[in-house]
Write a structure and sequence with these properties.
The chain is an alpha/beta fold. The protein has 3 domains: 3-14 and 60-257, Rossmann fold, CATH 3.40.50.300; 17-54; 265-396, Coagulation Factor XIII, Chain A, domain 1 (Distorted Sandwich), CATH 2.70.50. It contains 9 helices and 18 strands. It has helices at 24-35, 83-90, 123-133, 138-152, 167-180, 197-212, 224-230, 248-257, 428-434; strands at residues 3-15, 56-68, 72-76, 98-103, 107-110, 185-188, 216-220, 233-238, 241-247, 265-267, 280-289, 298-299, 304-312, 319-326, 332-337, 352-360, 368-378, 382-396. The strands form 4 sheets. A 6-stranded mixed beta sheet has the order 5-6-7-3-8-9, with helices on both faces. A 5-stranded mixed beta sheet has the order 12-18-17-14-15, with no helix packed on it. It has a 4-stranded antiparallel beta sheet with strand order 10-11-13-16, with no helix packed on it. Strand 14 and strand 15 form a beta hairpin. The longest helix is centred in the middle third of the chain and has 16 residues, at 197-212. It is globular.
Length: 435
């Protein structure tokens, strides 16, 4: 697989605050005072803070990576991590402060909704305008025009000025142009969040088709499900630097886990500072393998025990706890509630300390990082307190398999379901026909 994008030690800096005073005289005066080490006579009061005036923000710092032909690369990270800056440099919207980028092939970019569209022109005219901006000839645009309009699903509005389009219509037409004009490299920023669910699915399928044709896709999104379904490789940017680069599932899992540490036990402070409601206060929560064992990881083949201790402060309160189990993608797997315990009823509880214990069978949660949220529920249906990710833990697959086992099985749960395989009696005519 040949390399089509090579990024070598690329950095990009921006200067924050106001640059220049607006007049040549004042700029020269400010420069002369800086040379002499004197205060700037033109500095405004809102620029006096040293963190604002003259402060430099490094949006990217020594970023290096290579992208091969036909590769679908996902780029993830928090807001401000440098994702859009990197795409703008690749699209030649802005230049890097230092470093070198080599791109082999024509790049089509979809960085913002309506980029390159003129509001006074119709959708038809903007298709040709945007195609020209992307480096296409008029004949190329005309050849693909019907496919573009059909994909965008706005044929009835194609001769309407785009200033009357909704944001969703903008992105439909913009993506259709970028995806259908056969660029060697397609760069897509977080614009699909504007479209509806069906169109997002359609766009993901189109990007998959583009990659299947041997073209390269760079995809930035905060939708981790879309990133994992589309991309085989993911780069994680943090504070302008590459902190992760590898298979999609592994990199996304690290990103979603973030700075969270695996903590099997959490104890809250006693007294009025304890979380909960005036009637019920949480004390302690702990997760562990039901049969004991190692305390750093939990095997998928082991049952799970979750203990929650709480104090009923107000006598006569009807209370129970509910647990929400989440996987490393932030998807809720299932819930469990202590009101399903044998003997539990809607009767009022005396004041005192209670312990609710939940047993999760083996072979339920798949391997990976998981967390549990706890909810305090009063009067059967009123949530009075909720806290997410109280405890976190890693599930590992400790089974020894034979044959064609290929690693982690897909899916958010990993159930062991009952199967039966048995021979069936063969009718005489069936046997003769098979021979």
């Amino acid at each position: 697989m040949s390399t089509v994008i090579s990024i070598e030690n690329v950095s990009k800096s921006y200067r924050l605050g106001v640059i220049g005073s607006g007049t040549l005289r004042e700029d020269l005066q400010s420069w002369w005072h800086r040379v002499r080490g004197l205060p700037d006579p033109n500095r405004r009061l809102d620029q006096m803070h040293p963190a604002v005036d003259g402060h430099t923000l490094w949006a990217l710092q020594n970023v290096s990576l290579e992208v091969g032909q036909g590769e679908v690369l996902g780029i993830i990270g928090r807001n401000g991590a440098g994702k859009s800056t990197l795409l703008k440099i690749l699209s030649r919207v802005t230049a890097p402060t230092s470093g070198r980028i080599r791109v082999k092939g024509r790049v089509a970019s979809l960085l913002e909704v309506g980029t390159g569209f003129h509001p006074e022109l119709t959708g038809r005219e903007n298709v040709f305008l945007n195609g020209a901006i992307l480096g296409m000839t008029k004949a190329e645009v005309a050849r693909k025009f019907d496919e573009i309009v059909a994909f965008s699903e706005i044929a009835q509005f194609i001769d309407t000025p785009v200033k009357r389009y909704s944001s969703g219509m903008y992105v439909r037409l913009a993506f259709a142009v970028a995806a259908h004009l056969e660029p060697e490299i397609l760069v897509v920023d977080e614009v699909l969040a504007v479209g509806d669910a069906s169109f997002q699915k359609k766009c993901l399928g189109k990007m998959g088709d583009v990659a299947g044709e041997g073209r390269t896709v760079l995809f930035v999104s905060h939708n981790m499900i879309a990133v994992q379904s589309l991309c085989a490789r993911v780069v994680w940017l943090k504070n302008g630097q590459v902190v992760g680069d590898g298979p999609a599932a592994d990199t996304v899992a690290r990103y979603l886990r973030g700075d969270q540490q695996t903590g099997w036990e959490h104890a809250w402070p006693e007294g009025p500072a304890a979380p909960g409601s005036p009637a019920v206060k949480l004390k302690r929560m702990r997760v562990s393998p039901a049969g004991g064992g190692a305390t750093d990881q939990i095997a998928m083949q082991s049952p799970l025990r979750v203990e929650v201790q709480y104090r009923v402060v107000k006598p006569g309160t009807v209370a129970h706890v509910t647990l929400h189990f989440y996987n490393q993608q932030g998807l809720i797997l299932f819930t469990a509630t202590s009101c399903s315990a044998p003997g539990w009823s809607m009767k009022a509880h005396p004041a005192g300390i209670y312990e609710a214990v939940c047993q999760v069978p083996a072979h339920v949660m798949n391997s990976g990082y998981h967390s549990i949220a706890v909810l305090v529920v009063e009067e059967g249906n009123r949530v009075t307190y909720q806290q997410s990710a109280v405890v976190g833990f890693d599930i590992v697959d400790a089974a020894v398999r034979e044959g064609g086992y290929m690693g982690r099985e897909p899916g958010v749960v990993q159930l062991r379901l009952p199967w039966e395989v048995k021979p069936l009696p063969e009718a005489p005519d069936e046997g003769a026909r098979d021979r």
